[in-house]
């Protein structure tokens, strides 16, 4: 796995910005967004890409975003409305937003089906449960398009860790050994689950 190319941009001491340069094909593993840390900010930043396709009949997408994470709805392509519901992190105590339109392809008609970048508008804070679904436009059947109503969405789950959260080499070696041993001794029969 190779980390994407990044370029450091000057920012106030309390903030660090990273711009992603064109890189190799996307993969689903966590990637280092910026390995450098300043003396003031002993934090490390990583992200994981998630790409999902929603239709009007899809099961909603649910993201539980913890305190040290943020969710970026990076870009969307397709026809329809991307709806979001925002709850507290448990999903059961408080509904912050019951239903909101995060993206509407009609408002981006000039893109003619090309991908819309949302990075400045859709950085969602942590400690929430986000549910996304697609709504078709009421006049979708009258729109002259060969593409069915659907949304192709690119998310980035951003992680921020303190420098003290990093594993020591000794602990990492122990974990690696334990994982390799558990693969050797793990039951291989189908249908058996060990809890």
UniProtKB/TrEMBL annotation:
Q: Where is the composition biased (Polar residues)?
A: 1-18
List the biased-composition ranges (Basic and acidic residues): 23-42
Q: Where is this region: Disordered?
A: 1-42
- Organism of origin: Phytophthora kernoviae
What is the name attached to this protein's record? Uncharacterized protein
